[in-house]
Design the sequence.
C-alpha cells in the first residue's frame, strides 16, 4: 500500500521544513541541510523546489519575499505541527528499537 501523501516525511522533507523555522530561500536550504546533518543528508535542487511547491500547496510554509527569481519561505503553524508529529513518530521508532533490542543510545 503506498504511503499517504505527506503523512510521513522523508529525511529531505523533514530537514527542509526544519530549515524553515527561520526565513530562508532555496539556496540557503541547499547549504543548511548538509550542514545540519554533517553531510549525511543532501537535497538536490530539483527535489527541493518540488518539495517547496508541495509544502506551499499544503499550507506548511508561506512565501515571505520575492526578489527576482529568489523566493524566501518560512514555516507556518501547520508546518510546525507536521514537523512535531514527524519528530514524535521518529522518537517512537527509536523507543521501539531500544525496547526490542535492549540497546541504549549509541553514537
Sequence:
Amino acid at each position: 500500500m503506498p504511503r499517504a501523501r505527506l503523512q510521513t516525511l522523508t529525511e529531505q522533507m523533514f530537514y527542509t521544513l526544519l530549515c524553515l523555522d527561520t526565513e530562508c530561500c532555496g539556496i540557503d536550504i541547499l547549504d543548511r541541510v548538509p550542514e545540519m546533518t554533517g553531510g549525511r543528508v543532501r537535497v538536490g535542487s530539483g527535489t527541493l523546489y518540488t518539495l517547496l511547491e508541495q509544502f506551499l500547496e499544503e499550507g506548511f510554509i508561506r512565501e515571505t519575499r520575492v526578489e527576482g527569481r529568489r523566493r524566501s519561505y518560512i514555516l507556518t503553524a501547520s508546518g510546525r505541527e507536521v514537523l512535531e508529529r514527524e519528530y514524535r513518530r521518529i522518537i517512537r521508532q527509536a523507543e521501539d528499537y531500544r525496547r526490542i533490542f535492549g540497546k541504549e543510545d549509541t553514537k
